[in-house]
Write a structure and sequence with these properties.
Elements (H helix, E strand, L loop, with lengths): L2 H6 L2 E4 L7 E4 L1 H4 L2 H15 L6 E5 L2 H13 L2 E7 L7 E8 L2 E8 L8 E9 L3 H12 L3 E10 L5 H7 L4 E6 L4
Parallel strand pairs: 3-4, 3-7, 7-8, 8-9
Antiparallel strand pairs: 1-2, 4-6, 5-6
Helix pairs in contact: 3-4
Length: 178
């Protein structure tokens, strides 16, 4: 299956979550067995040479991709969640969004110092959440090898934000516009 075929499986929903936004919905790609398998295979091929110990998925669709990749690559899966969603002791980071603030957390000690990790999410737009997750992982002493996304919205600058902070970042698919 080609990248163009994968791109065609992503549904665009106009004016969601607000007027003027073209929402890129990956759930249609995930629901297609051949498309989902191809996406995971392509992402795994990119990650495999890095020999990660953990795939770190960002809530919520990043969980789906990172868990599948962890299984394929024989690595552990670690969720990065919104505040208050994880039981037990956590570490977190507060970050600024376009219209407010939020917090990401992971279980304390779940990513050992020096662990080789790859950060995974379904989509990168402005990059604020991905950058916060990357910073949280680095604060825990992880070796962040790569931030990998299924979809990039390059006009929104998220990849540049990560790269300017020293994070290697890639995406398989790109959609122009917001």
């Amino acid at each position: 299956m080609s990248l163009e075929s994968l791109t065609a499986l992503v549904r665009t929903i106009p004016d969601f979550p607000k007027p003027g936004i073209a929402f890129r919905d990956i759930t249609t790609l995930l629901a297609d067995p051949a498309g989902f398998a191809e996406l995971i295979d392509r992402m795994a091929d990119r990650i495999r040479p890095l020999e990660p110990q953990f795939l770190v998925g960002v809530e919520a669709r990043g969980f789906i991709l990172a868990a599948a990749l962890a299984r394929v690559l024989g690595a552990g899966f670690v969720p990065v969640r919104k505040a208050g969603k994880l039981p037990g002791p956590t570490v977190g980071i507060d970050y600024v969004l376009e219209y407010g603030a939020d917090r990401l957390e992971l279980h304390q000690g779940q990513v050992p110092v020096g662990a080789r990790v790859v950060l995974v999410d379904d989509l990168i737009a402005t990059g604020g959440t991905a950058l916060a997750a990357a910073q949280l992982l680095r604060e825990q002493g992880a070796q962040l090898m790569l931030a990998l996304f299924a979809i990039d919205l390059p006009d929104l600058g998220g990849m540049d934000l990560l790269r300017n902070d020293g994070v290697a970042a890639e995406a398989l698919l790109a959609f122009e516009g917001d």
